[in-house]
């Protein structure tokens, strides 16, 4: 948006490219490629109306992957952080609550170059930006919290 006069540039924006890069493992992140992989109709690529409709559909598929509390939570999603790593406020608060309650949670995580995976366990240490999760019958796993897409309570285990 650097070509826009400063008085017209939005203060905050949600970028489907950022959301896609954080949530999906793809060879390419073009609108055409993402639409193809998510089965979104893009009838006339590079035409304003078609691209706008496809981008809206893409957003509708990507946003739930983060289980956002609000638009600001999505705005805090980042990619390519190397120096100062920022963790989404909602994710940090959820980690703190899980740690305080010793709650068993499932975290959906996407680390660089891989598809999202689910990790189930108990948060045993939280020192931003890193969180250590103790898994049942497995070694603990250390994660960068900015790579967490969402955190949910684990469903109670059923007796077999």
Brief characterization of the structure:
The chain has 160 residues and is α+β, with helices and mostly antiparallel strands. It is 30% helix and 20% strand.
Any overview of this molecule?
The protein is α+β, with helices and mostly antiparallel strands and 160 residues long. The chain has helices at residues 16-23, 31-37, 48-62, 71-75, 89-101; strands at 104-109, 117-127, 130-134, 141-144, 148-153. A hairpin with a 6-residue loop joins strand 3 (130-134) and strand 4 (141-144). The termini are far apart. The mean pLDDT is 90.
Rg calc: 18 Å
Q: What spatial order of strands do you see in the largest sheet?
A: 4-3-2-1-5
Gross CATH architecture of the largest domain? Roll
Q: How helix-rich are the residues, as a percent range?
A: 25-40%
Distance, first to last CA? 56 Å
- As for the CATH topology of the largest domain, it is SH3 type barrels
Q: Quaternary status of these chains?
A: single chain
List segments where confidence is low: pLDDT < 50 over at least 5 consecutive residues: none
> Number of DSSP strands?
5
Estimated structural class = alpha+beta
Q: Averaged pLDDT, please?
A: 90
SSE string: HHHHHEEEEE
Tally of separate domains: 2
Feature tags:
160 residues; alpha+beta; SH3 type barrels; five-stranded antiparallel beta sheet; 5 helices; 30% helix; 20% strand
